[in-house]
Amino acid sequence: MFKTNSYFDDKVISIAFENQEGKATVGVMAPGEYTFGTTSVEFMTVVSGEMHVQLPGSDDWKNYKPFETFKVEAEKSFNVKVTTDTSYRCIYK
Amino acid sequence: MFKTNSYFDDKVISIAFENQEGKATVGVMAPGEYTFGTTSVEFMTVVSGEMHVQLPGSDDWKNYKPFETFKVEAEKSFNVKVTTDTSYRCIYK
Fold first, then answer.
1. Contacts with B15 from chain A: Cβ below 8 Å
2. Could you tell me the CATH number of the domain that includes residue B36?
3. Do B10 and A28 touch (CB under 8 A)?
4. Distance (Å) of CA B79 to CA A83, A93, B7, B53
5. What is the ipTM of this complex?
6. pLDDT digits (tens, 9 = 90+) for B13-57
7. Which domain holds residue A76?
């Protein structure tokens, strides 16, 4: 019923779902550095752990803790470093 | 790397992970009614959607919205109704 996807040699796994907030995923990242590309606008919220994020066009890295959210525009790429298993919710707009 | 589990004919799917908060899962529930049993104390937090929850020993149902948490003691069962795809984080203590 729910589709799971894995990326980066299974170091990132997500489950897709959809409700009144729109299309979304929840997932988990193992420690590592990842570059993600967006097709739509994404609102990414840390659920557990911590993400170090370099947003598109930024030289700076910023930390996001549980229930903190960042937005990425469509057709961009952004970089994420995590040093502990980190779960997230992503809503696609 | 991450273990996924499914329950209730794949209407509930979760991904297990572990970090400084302890053992945890994130998962998604399809609309339905479910009875879950605990082995350890569980701190369940709604991530997206909404849960209607009847805690052990309670006659009442209470609603939990995103980022709201309820606690269930070990070796208990509790009832959940969801009317939309609902994601959650569960931390086991």
1. 4, 13, 15, 26-28, 87
2. 2.60.120.10
3. no
4. 35, 32, 14, 6
5. 0.94
6. 999 999 999 999 999 999 999 999 999 999 999 999 999 999 999
7. 4-92
